[in-house]
Amino acid sequence: MTQQLNNQLFAFTKQFTDSAFKAQSLALKGLETVAALQLKALEEQSKVSAEFVAEAMEMRDANGLRSLWEKGTSLSRDNAERAVAVSQEVLAITQKTAESLNALVQEQRQAANDAVTAPVAAKKAAAK
Q: Is residue 18 a contact partner of residue 112, using CB atoms and an 8 Å limit?
Protein backbone atom coordinates (compact mmCIF):
# COMPACT_ATOMS: atom_id res chain seq x y z
CA MET A 1 0.00 0.00 0.00
CA THR A 2 2.81 2.39 0.91
CA GLN A 3 4.70 1.52 -2.26
CA GLN A 4 1.62 2.23 -4.38
CA LEU A 5 1.14 5.60 -2.65
CA ASN A 6 4.81 6.44 -3.15
CA ASN A 7 4.59 5.55 -6.84
CA GLN A 8 1.49 7.72 -7.31
CA LEU A 9 3.08 10.61 -5.43
CA PHE A 10 6.26 10.29 -7.48
CA ALA A 11 4.27 10.20 -10.73
CA PHE A 12 2.26 13.26 -9.69
CA THR A 13 5.40 15.16 -8.66
CA LYS A 14 7.12 14.31 -11.94
CA GLN A 15 4.07 15.40 -13.92
CA PHE A 16 3.80 18.64 -11.95
CA THR A 17 7.51 19.39 -12.41
CA ASP A 18 7.33 18.73 -16.15
CA SER A 19 4.31 21.00 -16.48
CA ALA A 20 5.97 23.74 -14.44
CA PHE A 21 9.05 23.52 -16.65
CA LYS A 22 6.91 23.75 -19.80
CA ALA A 23 5.01 26.73 -18.38
CA GLN A 24 8.22 28.50 -17.46
CA SER A 25 9.63 27.81 -20.91
CA LEU A 26 6.52 29.23 -22.60
CA ALA A 27 6.52 32.32 -20.40
CA LEU A 28 10.22 32.99 -20.97
CA LYS A 29 9.86 32.51 -24.72
CA GLY A 30 7.02 35.05 -24.80
CA LEU A 31 9.00 37.46 -22.64
CA GLU A 32 12.04 37.09 -24.88
CA THR A 33 9.97 37.80 -27.99
CA VAL A 34 8.39 40.88 -26.40
CA ALA A 35 11.75 42.19 -25.20
CA ALA A 36 13.31 41.75 -28.65
CA LEU A 37 10.38 43.51 -30.27
CA GLN A 38 10.55 46.44 -27.87
CA LEU A 39 14.33 46.71 -28.21
CA LYS A 40 14.03 46.82 -31.99
CA ALA A 41 11.40 49.58 -31.72
CA LEU A 42 13.57 51.53 -29.28
CA GLU A 43 16.57 51.28 -31.59
CA GLU A 44 14.53 52.55 -34.53
CA GLN A 45 13.06 55.41 -32.51
CA SER A 46 16.51 56.39 -31.17
CA LYS A 47 17.98 56.36 -34.67
CA VAL A 48 15.24 58.58 -36.09
CA SER A 49 15.39 60.95 -33.11
CA ALA A 50 19.18 61.23 -33.35
CA GLU A 51 18.90 62.11 -37.03
CA PHE A 52 16.31 64.77 -36.18
CA VAL A 53 18.52 66.29 -33.46
CA ALA A 54 21.51 66.32 -35.81
CA GLU A 55 19.43 68.12 -38.42
CA ALA A 56 18.16 70.58 -35.79
CA MET A 57 21.74 71.44 -34.80
CA GLU A 58 22.50 72.41 -38.40
CA MET A 59 19.57 74.85 -38.79
CA ARG A 60 20.69 78.44 -39.31
CA ASP A 61 17.67 80.36 -40.64
CA ALA A 62 13.90 80.78 -40.11
CA ASN A 63 12.92 78.76 -43.20
CA GLY A 64 14.98 75.85 -41.99
CA LEU A 65 13.35 76.15 -38.59
CA ARG A 66 9.91 76.06 -40.21
CA SER A 67 10.75 72.90 -42.14
CA LEU A 68 12.22 71.44 -38.96
CA TRP A 69 8.92 72.11 -37.17
CA GLU A 70 7.05 70.14 -39.85
CA LYS A 71 9.54 67.28 -39.65
CA GLY A 72 9.20 67.28 -35.87
CA THR A 73 5.44 66.89 -36.02
CA SER A 74 5.82 64.17 -38.64
CA LEU A 75 8.40 62.42 -36.44
CA SER A 76 6.04 62.57 -33.45
CA ARG A 77 3.20 61.08 -35.49
CA ASP A 78 5.44 58.31 -36.86
CA ASN A 79 6.73 57.49 -33.37
CA ALA A 80 3.16 57.30 -32.05
CA GLU A 81 2.14 55.00 -34.91
CA ARG A 82 5.16 52.77 -34.26
CA ALA A 83 4.33 52.63 -30.56
CA VAL A 84 0.77 51.57 -31.32
CA ALA A 85 1.95 48.91 -33.77
CA VAL A 86 4.46 47.52 -31.25
CA SER A 87 1.80 47.52 -28.54
CA GLN A 88 -0.53 45.54 -30.78
CA GLU A 89 2.21 43.01 -31.52
CA VAL A 90 3.03 42.71 -27.82
CA LEU A 91 -0.64 42.12 -27.07
CA ALA A 92 -0.81 39.41 -29.75
CA ILE A 93 2.29 37.68 -28.34
CA THR A 94 0.89 37.89 -24.81
CA GLN A 95 -2.43 36.45 -25.94
CA LYS A 96 -0.71 33.59 -27.75
CA THR A 97 1.40 32.83 -24.66
CA ALA A 98 -1.70 32.89 -22.45
CA GLU A 99 -3.48 30.48 -24.81
CA SER A 100 -0.49 28.12 -24.72
CA LEU A 101 -0.41 28.25 -20.92
CA ASN A 102 -4.17 27.60 -20.79
CA ALA A 103 -3.73 24.54 -23.03
CA LEU A 104 -0.99 23.32 -20.71
CA VAL A 105 -3.28 23.73 -17.69
CA GLN A 106 -6.07 21.83 -19.46
CA GLU A 107 -3.61 19.07 -20.30
CA GLN A 108 -2.46 18.92 -16.66
CA ARG A 109 -6.06 18.81 -15.42
CA GLN A 110 -6.94 15.98 -17.82
CA ALA A 111 -3.88 13.99 -16.78
CA ALA A 112 -4.77 14.45 -13.10
CA ASN A 113 -8.34 13.33 -13.76
CA ASP A 114 -7.09 10.28 -15.64
CA ALA A 115 -4.68 9.43 -12.81
CA VAL A 116 -7.46 9.58 -10.25
CA THR A 117 -10.09 7.68 -12.24
CA ALA A 118 -7.77 4.89 -13.47
CA PRO A 119 -7.27 3.20 -10.05
CA VAL A 120 -10.99 3.51 -9.24
CA ALA A 121 -11.95 1.94 -12.58
CA ALA A 122 -9.39 -0.84 -12.05
CA LYS A 123 -10.82 -1.62 -8.57
CA LYS A 124 -14.38 -1.72 -9.96
CA ALA A 125 -13.30 -4.05 -12.75
CA ALA A 126 -11.48 -6.32 -10.28
CA ALA A 127 -14.51 -6.44 -8.00
CA LYS A 128 -16.75 -7.77 -10.79
A: no
